[in-house]
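Researcher: Quick test of sequence recovery. Tokens follow.
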């Protein structure tokens, strides 16, 4: 059975594992949102950045990419993803149904935000998000790089995320 992983943020442009197939898909009941403080990868404990997470919201659906793990790479991929995504336990690992645009439905590994975790910051106004992203830097680089790479990749695969597009324009203006 194929192991699938749902990419909605950095997994879109930097999966870090062998991908056998990818397909645009929709995860119902979740919204892509800069709702997680980043204290490791895109910020520090003293100056946190923001990263995307899947925030449970029955009124929304998140468009992203379902990534099929190359056969025989499931165990190593799972170990890699757990090390990468569960660094602070702000994400919860879930297997959820993804509706692919080609009509298939697959069960995929998803990393969703734990709203009870101290790093959760849902509901922050976009302008405040832009101000934080414009200045934060962490172990994986500047927060701006994370935003720009994600927004660019979504556009390249034909997905429209108005909040990320607005944030990209605003942060570019703030950092000009």
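Model:
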């Amino acid at each position: 059975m194929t192991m699938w992983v749902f990419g909605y943020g950095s997994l879109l442009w930097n999966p870090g594992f062998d991908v056998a197939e990818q397909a645009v898909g929709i995860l119902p009941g979740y919204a892509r949102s800069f709702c997680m403080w980043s204290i490791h990868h895109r910020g520090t404990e003293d100056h946190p950045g923001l990263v995307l997470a899947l925030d449970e919201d029955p009124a929304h659906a998140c468009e992203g990419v379902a990534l099929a793990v190359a056969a025989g790479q499931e165990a190593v991929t799972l170990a890699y993803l757990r090390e990468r995504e569960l660094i602070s336990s702000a994400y919860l690992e879930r297997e959820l149904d993804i509706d692919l645009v080609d009509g298939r439905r697959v069960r995929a590994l998803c990393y969703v935000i734990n709203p009870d975790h101290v790093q959760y910051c849902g509901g922050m106004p976009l302008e405040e998000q832009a101000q934080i992203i414009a200045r934060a830097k962490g172990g994986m680089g500047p927060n701006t790089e994370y935003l720009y790479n994600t927004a660019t990749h979504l556009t390249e695969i034909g997905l429209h995320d108005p909040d990320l597009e607005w944030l990209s324009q605003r942060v570019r203006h703030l950092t000009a």
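The first strand starts at residue 4 and ends at 7.
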